[in-house]
Amino acid sequence: MSHIFSTTIEPTIQQLIEQFGKIDYQEHLIEAWVFGDKAHRQMAEATLLKQGVKAKLRSAYKPLLHFFMEDIDLVTNQISRIEVHYPLHPEASEKRFLLETYPLSALLGNAQVYYIANTQATDFYNVILRSESGIQTQYKVFAPNNLHLDLIKQSHLSPTGWLKVTNPEGKVTHNERLLTDYETLFSLGMGAISEHSWKDTEPYFEELNINVTLPWQDQPLPYKHEVLSLSEALHEDFYFSIQEWFKVKAGHNPNDREGQPGQIVPEIHYRDDASLRITIETRCYQTQNSQGKQILEFANSPLSMVQVQTELATISGALFNAKTVTGRTINACYHQGADFPVMISGGQHANETTGVIGTLRAAQLLQQKQGSHFTISPLENPDGYALHQRLISDNPHHMHHAARYTALGDDLEYRSTEPFYEKDIRYQARAISQADLHINLHGYPSHEWTRPLSGYVPRGFDMWTIPKGFFLILRHSEEEKWSQYAEDFIHLVTQKLIKIPGVMAFNKEQIELYQLHAGEANFRIINGFPCLISHGKPGDIPIQLITEYPDETLYGKHFITGHNVQTETVLAAYEAHQVLSAHLTPYYLPQ
After folding, report:
1. Res. 591: pLDDT tops 70
2. How many CA atoms lie within 13 A of 373 on its CB side?
């Protein structure tokens, strides 16, 4: 273990109380936009009011959403129509401020909501409310942002603090950016990492641990799995910002998935404390495996690592394996039969956990079918999975993208040089089975994914910021025969998935909300399922079906539904592959 940096930061809210809780500011109006939960902001307002100072502390994070939650009573005012004129900024995506309104439409009851781009505004929303009696009111909702460069010289327009002071005569005496505690902690942490003396070659460490405590609790929203969490957002910002910095240091592009810095682990905790704290240090890999057992079909949370192996052992066939950099074993099984073979895998991105169960359940059913022929690798990234198990013990409802990649810090699918470690399990599966189809089970966030300190929208993942139903990605060889096969295959699979109870309504609701808050979709809807069909990489398996169920942070009945859908998708894809391969062999299969 090697200590890199630690500090304690006084909360901005407390600084505001100390600065303005004086006789000099009596009868003044203090308006501040800060990062902090409602309870702390209201506490500060009450404390200042006792000193004769009127204050209004607003959230710098998702200000429009907080405006509706904290300042508007739609029911009492009988609001029936809402227009949100959102700003456009030349240094941000056209969707940026529209995305920030999510999930407003789902929180406003029966009121009709219209989102309209305002080309004349760059830092505020215009909100027009109309009541059932025809009364119209208009509000201007300030959205403070800061245009800045990050440590890899990328430009971002990010939410920031702001301070406005109005004296008793109505004159604004102060109106400028307020550098907040949240921003300062992130900046100091990133600065310490960038200034540390690292060795010259990857990997730079085994585990880089960023331990932070924040005094603000998560706030669940009254819609599905949505939540306002500054802790989760900070985890995402630290993880991806650090990863991007190390990629550039090693000569990669920020969006590349090949960088191998080591395992980056932000652990962001809530603590009822008066301060914000951060400690950064390097550690050795942790190699413990989680234990526990559930009934597989009714598992309501991610399986333990021990149970994954126990369930895999129930599948008949020849075992094969590979090793990770930490020494963990990736186990797989080849079940040989007369059918056209397929590869089935899960856990490539280890915080996407319904796919792990879906592979096991499907394989256990397929082995009962005469002639079934497949390989199964249910947990391709055990190091990431072990980290996920560790992180959810403290924050079970956070998406924890630190567990997405391997302990080396890369995406195993994009690993192109030896040692291959986890990816070797795929090479072995393909060589053993000679499969032309890979069914690769994944997931994505079940609630909004943001990076508020780095431009709000996660760099390189703007398509996955909010849920949009059960999504299917199909990658195929550029050969014409596989292009046609892909179209027939996706139609056959989706026709079968229509029969899953509730899935069509689930997709419809999420896609409609996605389109309201993200604009027009850049994907196809095939038989009610959002789909993206594209060419695979040269040398890839001819057909790869990637499932994307919005499962990150799900538990209970919603988690069970997730792995039910994943299981049915494997079975549908397997059957579709048999039909197409058997009846159209001269056209589809290599000669």
Report:
1. no
2. 17
